[in-house]
Every structure is written in structure tokens, then in C-alpha cells.
Amino acid sequence: MKTNLFHTLFISATLLQGCTDSEKIEINMMSFNIRMGGGASVSRTAQVMASSGADIIGVQESLAGETNTATCIADSLGWYAYARGGSETILSRYAIADTSSVGYGVKIRLDGRHYVWVFNVHLFHYPYQPYQLNGVEYGGAPMLNTAEEAVASAWEARKAQVTEVIADIRSVRDEGWPVFLTGDFNEPSFLDWTDRAAKAGLCKLPVRWPATKAFAEQAGLKDAYRMLYPDEAAHPGHTWTSCPSEHEVPDRIDFILFKGGVKPVKSKIIGEKGSLSDIQFADYPSDHRAVMATFRLTVDR
Question: Could you tell me the pTM of the whole model?
Fold first, then answer.
């Protein structure tokens, strides 16, 4: 029997159910790297999940040793969970109906007529090209000087994963349901490292980062946060990191991408106390800020 240890922390679900074509269904999607199975505190990690208002959470780094912290939290909340293996887990307050062919995604039943597909990924962390461009030593990786070098290095590191995820997403496209991709990409967005951002001192130079570019061009996915905040200089939306150091390079590397039949209506950064977080928690447990977006379904069946 599941115990609702954090039941009192729930914020009411945003799913509005009815029987007319004019009804509005909204879901809150979150992407959350919980830092090696719960970071500084598993209980505080659970509190962030439960009190954020999220309906579906793509979790990265869900393992603490052999224990999947995310599935344990899901069980305590009375939620559903799907662990692909490694660090990737999807949590949902709605039932999981199916999995994709490669296993990156799950089909989630919102009600008797509506489903969504949710994919979740944790792209390879090394080498980390923003460090290489900024002269920050990390694992002995060579320093980089140009955008072309950065793109080549990033694509070599993550091409195999990105290509596999895109193929998995394409395998469900004929169903026609909305598709979401959450994840820690360990790579910035091609929408962020622009001339405007460089002039504002937010990045070293313009770079057309290949992972987000491939998801946009080959899978048709859109970036929820950047759609709502199109000025990357005014709203950088940094998710890396909530634990800055003297030589850290702040960036946005955690994403919620989407396509088909939904419209983002708001997006928030979740993290530590301070001006960089829209939703703030004392003693925030992870080194990544989470990102959450509210979507409204725009088609009915």
C-alpha cells in the first residue's frame, strides 16, 4: 500500500476535466536534476517535487548507489514512475499507459480522451564545452577557442544519444499526441549563445550548439522557456548552477521541449533563495535549478 508522506504538500492538480470541446486542460511539466539521487537531502528533494505543483517530472541523476530515489519519492506521493535505467526516471501523478520503442519515453493518460508522450534524457556530461571555451579546467579536456571547435566537440560527445532520442520520438509521431522532452542536456541552447547574449556578457561568443539545434530541426521540438522569454539577454534562465564558485560558468542546460497540440502559458525557474529563482526554497538540495512549464492543450479528441 502506498503511503502519502507528502500529501499535505500537494498543490491542487491543474488538470480540468469536462465533456465539452471548449474545456481547458493544463499540465505542469518539470525537468529536475536531483544531483546523485537527492543531493543534499532526499526529504528536501521530495518537498521541491511535491510543493512545486508539478504534474509530470523528468528526473535526471535519480540514483543514489543502487537505490532509485525518484521512484521511492513517487511511491511515497502515490505517483507513478518509470525508470529507464541509469539516471533517468519519469514521475507522473497520472497513469503511465505505454513506453516508447527505445524506452526514452512514456505515454501518459490524462483522462479518458487525452494522452501525452513524455521523453526524458540526461546527455553526456564530458567534455563540457562552456568550460573549455572559458579556460576552466575540467577532467583534462583541451581548451577551445572557436565556435566551430565547440560545436564539433559537443556533437562528438552527444551525437549518439541525441540521434537515438530523436528516432524514439519519431516512432510515436503517427499517434498524433503532444510530445514533451525534458532533460539535463549538459550543453547550452543554440537560442542562448547569440550575438545579443555575447554583447551582454552572458556568453563567450555566439555558438550554434548542436543538441538543441538537432531536436528543433530534426524532431520539430520547441523550447518552452525561450518561447515565453524570447529575449535571451533579458531572461537568461540559468539552471546551472545553484552552487556557483569563483570560476563557474552559469548557463541554461536544463530544458522542457515540446511539439503538437499544446501551448506553453508560463514557465518558472525553481531553485535556491535569491533573484535567479522564480520559485524559491530554503536549503535547496540540488546543484541544478529545475525548470517548470505550464502547458494548455489546444486540440481536443
Answer: 0.93
